[in-house]
Amino acid sequence: MTETAAIELKEVNFTYRVRQDLFTSWKKPALTDVSFTLRRGETLGIVGRNGSGKSTLLKILSGVFHPDTGTMTSFVKTVSLMTLSLGFDNLLSGRNNAIFGGMLLGFSKREVEQRLEAIKEFSGLGDSFELPVKSYSSGMASRLKFAVAINLEPDVMLLDELLAVGDVGFRKQAAAVMQEKIVSEQTTVLVSHNAGDISRLCDRAILLERGEIIADGNPEVVLQEYRKVQNVLL
Amino acid sequence: MSISPIQFMSLLTLKVRLGLKAEAGRYKLGYLWWILEPLLYASVFYLVFVVYLDLRTENFIAYLLTGIFPFQWFQKSVSNAMGSIKGSKGLLSSFTIHPVFFPLTHILQDAIKQVVTFAFMLFFLLFYGVAPTITWAFLPAIMVLQLAFIFGVGCFVAAIVPLLEDLRFLVATILIGTMFASGIFYNPREVIDVDLHMLFYANPVASLLQIYRDILLNNDFPQFINLYFVGCWVGIFWLLAIFTLNRLRPRYAKMVLE
């Protein structure tokens, strides 16, 4: 694993505004003074309770959200954010969504088309690959998303709970590919509630609590901290 | 992480093509609606103005059609573009593409459909006995001018609606007001006082319709005053759209989720 930075966050703050009506709204801080460096080739796990800011952090890393204050500096070309709510055009087929999604990630149409068969095969969608995405179950849609990202090999992959969906067979397949990616120095950030995934796949982990990083380092140590936080609240 | 201009154009072309295909696939009669819709529209106006109101004055139907079709293009494009950024929550919260992509996709899709509709309009004009003249050759250029105007207005309203959803009502009301204030159903040169012509044609849609009628019905070149007003409004809306979209760009992903 090289030590060069892929993405660097410095004192990032991010707040949502919750609007009740025209005159009433309040601020809800999502991230507070978050600083860390995602290094090239590492697999970073992010853990934390619901609402701790994990998904917001991934959106900051992907460049989708801009910090209110602080800086996010990216040293890579392509970053792929994969969430359960990833934007598909429901009227288009899986094939066309794969092409469109791949191009949105910064790949040329030719590059995506060259990998289409591999994407189709990995997704296991079979003939459904040609059907509109609106006919897919959430598991099928997630498999397609994962297949697009894993086959296009972006510089950084950001996975938001994506390993927790799909059937057992797909989860095993996804975990096996992730293991390969780690060996091949793919830079990955993995958000998961599954401690097993974090300890097996990640070489570093971060614990977020109420938008702040309270632990950063060895996955086993961070997971121990995470258990303590959970126990305190139980 | 940012998408190059070439990649952006490539994505836009793909999205417009797939969007038209998907839209056609959604309806049983598919692409046929591109012709059926204006035909139905024209039929309604024929029923109201010719059958009910008996306004069989010379060239009235032709006059009506050259007002309705360009206006309908403007109205539909702006209405479709209006909610395009707000409605692209999934893509905006997953990718870093420039938000202008969303209104542009809708506007270009509508423009392609409009080429078919305008061909149909010319067919109607011939059917109603309007003889084609050399000034008809201006039609493509005037359509490009209208497209430039629609780009400006469509992108601007798409840019501001995520700020305040209520603006949709205001835009819808302005569109209806524009319909009545642009001379679709009446000839402003006949019914509006000459002193008020400048004010009337300061409305860019009124000026656009006058240009269409001059080249298609009056065998006349576009009047400078009409081109001037449309050109000014194109510039104003383009500046507003560029400024608003670039200013709010970092906030859209957050805004559509809040």
The gist of it:
Chain A has helices at 54-62, 94-104, 109-114, 116-123, 138-152, 168-183, 195-201, 219-233; strands at residues 5-19, 25-39, 43-48, 69-74, 79-82, 156-160, 187-191, 204-209, 212-217.
Structure description:
The complex is a heterodimer of chains A (234) and B (258). Chain A has 234 residues and is α/β, with parallel strands linked by helices. Chain A has two domains: 1-76 and 155-168 and 181-234, P-loop containing nucleotide triphosphate hydrolases (Rossmann fold); 82-154, no CATH class. Chain A is built from eight helices and nine strands. In chain A, strand 6, helix 6 and strand 7 form a beta-alpha-beta unit. In chain A, helix 2 crosses helix 5 (138-152). The longest helix of chain A is centred in the last third of the chain and has 16 residues, at 168-183. The radius of gyration of chain A is 18 Å and the shape is globular. The mean pLDDT of chain A is 86. By secondary structure, chain B is mainly α. Chain B has one domain (5-257). Helix content of chain B is 73%, strand content 0%. Chain B has helices at residues 5-26, 33-52, 60-82, 89-92, 101-127, 139-160, 167-181, 188-191, 197-201, 204-216, 224-257. In chain B, helix 1 (5-26) packs across helix 5 (101-127), helix 3 runs antiparallel to helix 5 and helix 3 runs parallel beside helix 6. The longest helix of chain B is centred in the last third of the chain and has 34 residues, at 224-257. Chain B is globular. The mean pLDDT of chain B is 90.
Largest interface: A-B, 35 and 29 residues
Estimate nothing, just give the exact number of structural domains of chain A: 2
| Domains of chain B, number | 1
Report the portion of residues of chain B in β strands.
under 5%
DSSP strand content of chain A: 25-35%
Number of strands of chain B: 0
Let me know the largest β-sheet of chain B: none
**Contiguous uncertain segments of 5+ residues of chain B:** none
CATH superfamily of the largest domain in chain A: P-loop containing nucleotide triphosphate hydrolases
Shape of chain A: globular
How many H/I helices of chain A?
8
Query: What multimeric state do the chains show?
Result: heterodimer
